[in-house]
Model the fold of this input.
Amino acid sequence: MTPGRRSSTFTRLLRHGFTDPSAAERSLDTPELAGVRDDPVLLEALGETADPDLALHGMVRLLESQPAPTDRRELLDTLIAAKPLRDRLLGILGASEALADHLARHPHDWQTLVTYEPRDLHPGVAEFERELAEATDPVTLRVAYRRCLLSIAARDVCGTTDLAQTAAELADLATATLRAALAMARSAAPEDAAACRLAVIAMGKCGGHELNYVSDVDVIFVAEATEGTDEAKALRSATKLASHMMRICSETTIEGSIWPVDANLRPEGRNGPLVRTLSSHVAYYQRWAKTWEFQALLKARPVAGDAELGEAYIEALAPMVWQAAERENFVTDVQKMRRRVVENIPASEIDRELKLGPGGLRDVEFAVQLLQLVHGRTDPTLRSRTTLDALQALAAGGYVGREDAARLDEAYRFLRAMEHRIQLYRLRRTHLVPEAEEDLRRLGRSLGLRTDPVTRLRREWKRHTGVVRRLHEKLFYRPLLDAVAQLAPGEARLSPEAARERLVALGYADPAAALRHLEALASGVTRKAAIQRTLLPVLLGWFADSADPDAGLLNFRKVSDALGKTPWYLRLLRDEGAAAENLARVLSAGRLAPDLLLRAPEAVALLGDGDGGGLEPRGRAQLEQEILAAVGRAENAEQGVTAARGVRRRELFRTAATDIVGSYGTETTPAEADEGALLDRTGAAISDLTAATLAGTLRAVVREHWGDTLPVRFAIIGMGRFGGHELGYGSDADVLFVYEPREGVDDQEANRAANKVVAEMRRLLQIPSADPPLLIDADLRPEGKSGPLVRTLKSYEAYYRRWSLVWESQALLRAEPVAGDEDLGRRFIELIDPLRYPRHGLDDDAVREIRRLKARMESERMPRGADPKLHTKLGPGGLSDVEWTVQLLQLRHAWEVPGLRTTRTREALAAAREAGLLSEEDAAVLDEAWVLASRVRNAVMLVKGRAGDTFPTEPRELAAVGRYLGHGAGQAGTMLDAYRRTARRARAVVDERFYAD
Done:
C-alpha cells in the first residue's frame, strides 16, 4: 500500500466517524475484506452506525466465523447489494458488542436480518412463539431468544420502530419466552402439569407492555387444582412448575441466561408462598395489601399458562386496584412513596441514575400511576397498563395539562431510549449513564446526535431530566389551578369532583377550602395572579410533603394577601430559588413560625439569599446594637420596648425558620445531620435574643425614669436554660436581679429604684400586643417566691453564707450575667463560684439530699394523667434526669476539673467524659437523650404554638413533630418507640451514675 493511498484512506476513515483510523485500516486490509475494502457504500454505511470502529470489528469477526469461503462470499455480496441488510446488520454491530458476540458464535444468524417483508416490521407474540417453537431445552431457547432479539434491535437502531413499539416487542418476546419455558417445565413433569391449572401474571414493565432490553421480568403465579386433585397437592405441583420455569429463564448456561424471573411482587414478597390460589390472592389483597401493592397491580397482565384463570385473576383484583385511593392510609402511603428514596444509591452514582435519580424515569412512572389510582376509579379511560398511553389518556381527560403531558412524553421517550441503548451495548441490566468518553460518544450517535455527540448528549440528557424534575410535581397541581382559574375556554379541565379527589389523595383534609384558596390566589389576569399560578404548582407539592398541607396553603394565602401588592415579595419567590421552598416549609410546619410571620409579613424577606441577612442567626452584639439604637430613638419606654419586642419577634421567626429548614432539609440541601449542633445553634440564638431584649428593656426603663444614670448598679443574671444558652421557643427567662447602690445613694432609695426597674421591665415585656410576650421568672432567687425580688450583692453574700441550701448551689451552676452592669455581674459570679464549685466537692449528706430532692420531684411534679415514659422533662431518661446527673458531677468534681465549670449541659457532659468521670458510651447515651428531649419540646412549640413537655395527641400535630424530628409520613409510632428506647437507655445510665454511684 503506497503512502499516498494510506493517507487518503486514513482521511476518509476519519471523515466517516472512525476514532482509530489506523486500526480500521488494518481491519480493512484483512483477507476477508479484500474484495470490498474500497467500496464507498460500505464505508458510508459503517459511518452511519453508532460506533464505526465497533461495527467494522464486529463485521470482521462475523466474516472470520463463517464456516466456508462460500458463506463468506454470500455474506459480503448480500451486505453490499442489499441496503436493508446492510443497515440492519451494521447498525447492530455498531451498537451492541453482545449481539456481535452472538453472531460470531452463530455465524448463520445474520440471515435473520435479510428478509424485509411487511409482516417482519411489527411481530407480535404469535410470530415470536413460532420463532421459539423449535427450542427444546434452555440452551436452544437462549439461542432462539437472541435471534429474535437481533430482529428487534435491528428495527430499533434503524429507526423502523419507535421506542414504544420496541418496548412492546420486547414484552411480546418475553411473553413468548415465558410460554416456551413453561411448556418445557410442563413437558418435564407431566404429572405435575396434570394436577394443576397454573397462570403466569406479568407485572412491572413486562405487564405494562414496555419492557427494556435487559430487565428482570416480574411475575405473579396463581394456580387452581384440576378436577379430582387435592388443593395442597395441586399447589405443590404448581410451585414445582413455576420454579422450573423461572430456572429455565434465569440460569446461566453456555449461552448465558435470558433474564431473571422475579416473583417478589407476590403477596408477602419473598416470605410468601411462590404460588397461591385465586381465593388466597383475593383474601390477601382484601385484608393485608399495602397501597404500593395495588399500584403494582396497575401493570398486571396474564401472559402464560391457563388463560381463563389469568383473566379471572385480573377480574377479581381490578376492582380493588381502583378502590385503593379510598383506603384509610392511602394519603400516608402516597406521601411515603412520593418522598424520593435515594439513600441506597451511592453518592457517586446518583447523578448518573436514569431510573431513580432526580428527574429520572421513576418520577414519570410514579406520577402517572398515582394519577391513575386517584382518577381511574371514576374514569375507565385511564386504566392503561402502559405509561405513555396512560399519560396521553390523562391529558385527553384534562387530568394533566396537554403541554405538560407532551413535554413529559418527549422526556420519557428520550430517557428510555438512552436506557435501551446503554443496555443494548453489552446486554447488561443497568440504569447508569456511562462515564467513558467513547461510551458517551457511541450512546450519543446511537440517538442521532452525530455532531459533537458527547456534548450534545449531556446537554439533552440534563434538559430532559430538568423537564421531568420541574413537571413531575407540577403534573399534580397545574390542572387544579386550570380548573379554578378558567383562563383557557374550550380546554379539557378537571371537574370539581376530580379536583377534590386529587387534593384528598395528596393529603389535603379540607379540599373544598383548598380549592377556594387556589381560586383566590390564581384567578384573574393581574401580574400577581400570573406569578402565583407559576409558583403554586411547586408550592403545593411542598405543602403536600408536610404533615399539614391545608395549613400551609391557608398561611400562604394570608401572606400573599398581606404582601401581594408589594413588588419585591413575588419577585423574591420567583427569582430566588431557596425563598419559595423555605417559605413552603415554614408555612406548613406548625403554628409558631407562621404566626410570627403573619404579625409582620415583611419578614418573609429573610427566607431569601439577598440583603435581608438570610437565615443565618445574628450574634448577641449585633442584636443588642440594633435594639439599643431603636430604644434610643423611641419617645418613651413603652415605644422603646415595643421596638425591642418587634426585633425579638423578627429574630424568633428567623431562628424558627432556620431550625425548620435545617430539620426538614430542602431539595438541594439535606437535613442537618448533626441534630445536636442544630439544637445548640437554636438555643444560643434564642438565648442571645432574650439577653439583648432584656438589655434594651433595661435601657428603656432607666431612660424613662432616671435619664442616663440609674441610682444603682444593676445586673441581670441568667439562670436555668437561659444561663446555659439552651433556651427553647417556649422557655421563660429564669433570672436573678442584683444591685448595688451608687456612691451617695441611701439604701431605701436604691431599693426602691431597683424594685421599680424590675416591676417596669416585667410590665413592659408583657403588655398585650402583636408580639409574643417575654415572661421573666425570678423564682430561683433566695427564699424563692417568699424572698425579695431584688437583692444587693451584700445581701446575696450574707444569705448564701448563712442560709444557702444544696439545691441553691445546684441552681447556681447555670448562673451567668446576661444584661446590665458587667462589673457587678462579674463580682456576683466571683461570689457564687465557691458555692457551686465547692472545694473537695460535696459531702455524703449533700449527695443524699440531692438524690432525695430528685426522687421527690419525680413523684410529686409529674402532671396527673401524663405518660411518664413520654414526658420529656420529668419522665425517665428526660431532661431532668440528664441535667441532675451532670450537675451532681459538677458539684462533686468541678473544683478539680476546670472543664466542668460551665453553664452548658452538653459542654459539661463532654468535660466529664474527657476527665474519665463518664464512659464514652454513657456520655453519648445521655447526650443523645438530652438532645432528643430538647428537640421534642421545641417541636411541640413550633407545631402547637404553645409550650408542652409531652407529645401531642392530635394525629396531624403528632405527625408534624415527627417530620421535624426526621421521621417520614406514617411513622409516628416509630418516633414514639425511638423516644422510649432512647429515654430508657438514658435512665439506665442515670440509675447507675446518679442514684447508685
Q: What stands out?
A: The two ends are 95 Å apart (CA to CA). Confidence is low (pLDDT under 50) at residues 1-5. Residues 453-485 form the longest helix (33 residues).
